[in-house]
Protein 1
Amino acid sequence: MRIDLHTHSTASDGTDAPAELVRKAAATGLDVVALTDHDTTRGHAEAIAAMPEGLTLVTGAELSCRLDGISMHMLAYLFDAEEPALLAERELVRDDRVPRAQGMIVKLQELGVPVTWEQVARIAGDGSVGRPHVATALVELGVVPTIDDAFTEDWLADGGRAFVEKHETDPFEAIRLIKGAGGVAVFAHPGASKRGRTVPEAAIAEMAAAGLDGIEVDHMDHDTDTRARLRGLAKELGLLVTGSSDYHGSRKTCVLGEYTTDPEVYGEITRRAFGAFPVPGAGGV
Ligand code: AMP
Ligand code: FE
Ligand code: FE
Ligand code: ZN
């Protein structure tokens, strides 16, 4: 069984439409794929309608959180997408992305970059707008050669010249909301230090005590030492360990199924969740 529990579609900052993503997931030999767009579930319906036979979809989202000034991501699986408290928080975070992107565009214009909201809105389409869309605009304008080059202090990195914060949820509140909606909470790429400061282990221990289910360990942003350290921490704290590609289509170099999750861990996630069931493919369009 090949299980990839973290992917993005055009519903946020990925480049494959949800239907395209599930078709590619099946074609690449995955048995289970989770769709985890940033702060939104709006890609789920299209993915479900297109599910190929032999592939199972885990519905999810990746919630933007912040602890003591450190931005972090919480993966939420198999929650009830209609549950009002989590839905309200998700919409708050997603909607704040628009004025925030516009704020970054103003800063870029002040730096002499001729980027416009119209350009970024076109790139984002109906997806929840994020820095990768702004970064794509900078590549289009020839300001930087690649998206990665836009994530520097000069441009869009945390605290960078054109960076603007967005509303982000306290992770303890996120865990409470996810569990309250019948979901499972997994801390995404907790050791991704190249993206900025990371949350200390003591805080992960507190999250574990507050109901965190697991941590993502096998991820492209973790080196071998980081994975070993996180695996040890998960064992110590009784947390599930997941692995996933964090696929973003052509916006990142990773491929679907590049890292995967142990079938036993997947089984445990499905046993713990009661907000939604995994969706087996029925051979959709
Ligand atoms: P946002 O949620 O709008 O703040 O944007 C965060 C997203 O930007 C992440 O989910 C990644 O897709 C991407 N990202 C963050 N840091 C980097 C980086 N150093 N290089 C490339 N992409 C990044
Ligand atoms: Fe992303
Ligand atoms: Fe993330
Ligand atoms: Zn992600």
Note: The domain at 3-93+167-280 is CATH 3.20.20.140 (TIM Barrel).
Protein 2
Amino acid sequence: MNNPTSNKRVVALISGRGTNLQALLDAPAHWLGGRVEHVISNIPDVSGLDRARAAGAETTVIPHRSFESREAFDTELIKTVLKAEPDLVLLAGFMRILTPIFIEPLVGRMLNIHPSLLPEFPGLSTHRRAIEAGHDMHGATVHFVTQELDGGPLILQARVAVNEDDTEESLSARVLTREHEIFPLASRWFLHGRLRLEGEHATFDGEPLLKPLDLDKLLATTR
Ligand code: GRF
């Protein structure tokens, strides 16, 4: 029997290798509550597009370099995304700053994965910055996308201990494995109707999330 919640449509935006996309493609539709139907990249020929095609998702390349302005690019992007009628839009390693033209129509149904424990280290080079700051904990965050760069309501985090001998590469590899745990899980919650954006707050099972959920604490309480 078909589970109707498996029919939800997910559109993913990528700019590169697409390992977070792969984690979403690998999630069974009945578990996730939907499928990644369409993958859009702003860079041609990235390996994430091959992953999408191999999984049978539709792909579109919208090269940002062909557009005169950020606004012109975002206008084309939002047109393509809305045509796909998504229930959920995922920024799965999409390395472009977005304007309100793109963000506004999707507020409340767009999630981003960011490689830091937000609000620490928004922006780029998060792993190097965490090491340089001498932090002993680092990690990844899923959040709703709003106008503020890496600043929308936080949903779910996973922590990684920083070792004394960590390099940017070794730390980013460990954080990445945790990204692959939390991005599909938060997407699942959204598609199953457990996660919402209500005003300024994310809500989970109807309760406002005053701080993000922590994956390890959740796992410890469900064990
Ligand atoms: C990830 O670290 C993600 O958090 C960041 O960009 C990277 C993309 O990696 N936004 P991948 O393309 O998913 O492998």
Note: The chain has one domain: 4-222.
